[in-house]
Amino acid sequence: MRIAIIGAGASGTITAINLLKKLQQPASIFLIEKRNEGLYRGAAYSSQLDYEPLNVYAGRMSLYNDNDDDFYNWILENKKSCEEITHESFVSRRWYGEYLETSIKDAVVKKQNGVLCETVSTATENIAKTPEGNYLLKQEDGREITADVVILATGNEKPADVISKEAIQVLGESYVSNPWNKNPLENISAEESVLLIGTGLTMVDHVVSLKKKNHTAKVFALSRNGLLPRPHKHSPAYKIEREISNESIEQLDANILEEVEKAKSQNLDWRSVIEALRPVTTKIWQALSDESKSAFLNKYRIYWDIHRHRMPPASHNEISELISENKFEILKGTITDVLKTENGFLVSYKDASDSNSVIVNRIINCTGPSGDYEKCDNPLFKNLLSKGWIKKDKHNIGIVTGAAGELIQQNGNVLENIFAVGPLRKAMEWESTAIREIRTQAEQVAIQIISQANAHA
Fold first, then answer.
1. Cβ contacts of residue 301 below 8 Å, gap of 6+?
2. Alpha helix (H) residue ranges in 125-269
3. Residue scoring higher pLDDT (235 or 159)
């Protein structure tokens, strides 16, 4: 059996590890990745920023559902720290990248005889069916790989540009479109003021990284809502007693707020409620109508994001300190124009009631990954869309997949033996970008592939 995994970042690596551990029959695994600097780690865990902590407790980042302490134990065995490392520590993203790399190398060593794993350093540009019924993967460098099963584990696409093409031309090299491409802060001098578009976790890491680099000029962050992620804080477990998965978005919102009040009466805060929702979030999402999903994305998403995707307490303290010292300012609105001046770039922005401007020397796009695969510049998705093998979801946050991650074509039929793992499944599952969900998907896909192979043996 020949299995091709397109993408060898976190999603692809975790999928390969599951296959290597579970395969008992002869098989060849091709792990295909163009970015050598992100090999086995992905963009998030190969970060070169000066400040790049995980935004999740170390005790919750294991690769395995049946061994919650695997990453934590790896830290204790492999890393030295001036501070005590606990299950609730926020450790370096680079440590997690090392953990991923170590884990797959260990899985290769311990695999069954007859199972091969080859890393292919190129990009897949297209997939075609062969007369025999399997798949031919056409690579950027001209190579072709034949596979019986294909797994799309391409991770996050880069952010969509939220400023005009004209503004991008004006900015030239002073604009960074992808904040996770190598180190976007490397060539920024201490005296250059910086504007970050977006006020989420990516922005937080970049702002604090500038501080760690002894950056002295003022830093700005701009978003439509001007809202920051809330800080993590330990809160004991809370249990939701009722079924809330088939409500309208308005009723769901009211029910969640009611649960928050119940938690308060038990001396718990909203964080406990968010964690209690985590195991049923996908079920809730799938039960919503398209109309309710649109309402959520347009009205409620920002509030979900800042509460669900929280920042470490240390990050919150750093940001608060910079704000109090007037070294960092949050702006609200969207950019309308960019003009070059003697002192830098005059950036005009507007919210619902007012227009303002600010002069900066650099702009970094931190708006988060794009889910509109029709507009991304990945040739593979352009080709798969053009022949109807993948179908965009109605809300432009992913593609349509089945319960096991199988691809659903534009004609509504399942594309046999091609699966998706990770952010590609966000449209159907919503929670599909964190390690907890990715490890579950990877394990399920591995089991599905092996079961199918055994059934046809």
1. none
2. 165-171, 201-212, 249-265
3. 159
